[in-house]
Amino acid sequence: LQFGYVSLFSCVYPLAAVFAVLNNITELYSDALKMCRVFKRPFSEPAANIGVWQMAFETMGVMSVVTNCALIGMSPQVNALFDNNKTDLILIVVAVEHVLLAAKFVMAFVIPDKPRRSEEH
Questions:
Q1: If we measure between CA atoms, which residue out of 55, 51, 64 comes closest to residue 97?
Q2: 87-113 per-position pLDDT tens digit
Q3: CA 62, CA 67: separation in Å to the nearest integer?
Q4: Which residue of 8, 88, 111, 112 is most buried, as measured by CB atoms within 10 A?
């Protein structure tokens, strides 16, 4: 949920990322206190990967690119640059969005899911 808020609306409210980090630090220390002082240590079950969450995060990443491009395209500062011709604005926003999505998919293809070091063991 937090990843969605930060990635979808970071261009509108950049401080969201800072507040997310502060929230995560607070949650880390409160969870550590609970696990060390209140509850017994939880046992985790090993998993090969993150499962269905991988697709959820990748979908959220694509939605974030589209949403942020649209929000930037609707901002008053950008609209002031294209007073006469809104068609050019829409075409530029869509072109930038396509370039960013292409870069995202190229990086997802080029960067391996598992580091080479972990595949050796």
A1: 64
A2: 999 999 999 999 999 999 999 999 987
A3: 9
A4: 8
